[in-house]
Predict the structure of VanZ like family protein.
Amino acid sequence: MKGRKYIIIALVFLIVWVGVILFFGTRRPVESSNQSYFVYNAIKSIDNVFDFSDTKWFREIEVFLKKLWLRDQYADSIALIRKSAHFGIYFILGGFSWLFGFLYSKRFLIGALLGVSLPALIASIDEYSQEFVGRGSALNDVIIDISGAFFANLIIMVVYIVYKIWKKRGEIMK
């Protein structure tokens, strides 16, 4: 019974997060742009306090991501924020999808398959639905979304393997 409760909780988180993603995908171009500028201004306010954007590592990461996601190191910061949001939102979805798949099946591989395939499906649906609200859809966005989910699953896999090794070593030491 206790395991079933965790499965239901994971499913609720998963459904709510998919709802959040689809909600953001249905925003009209002006609303979406205003959200991006809001986040940009919030980050600039934080930067004014901590002054992290003048550091070497920040500039290197910024150029790397702009080349990777936008294919242009001179792209504007708003575009980078939008692509980073894609990555981050689907990173979280990948984690929730993996968790639900793992709790439901008790198999790591099923969790990993669901952790990448469900976000890929949702990303495709989200990009397609943006056509109906006057926003363009882009295959590049779907690729960024899938990479966010994949990266979340990769981190989960590394943590899982380290945990298994650590647990096995603990048993050997006894």
About this structure: The chain has one domain: 2-173.
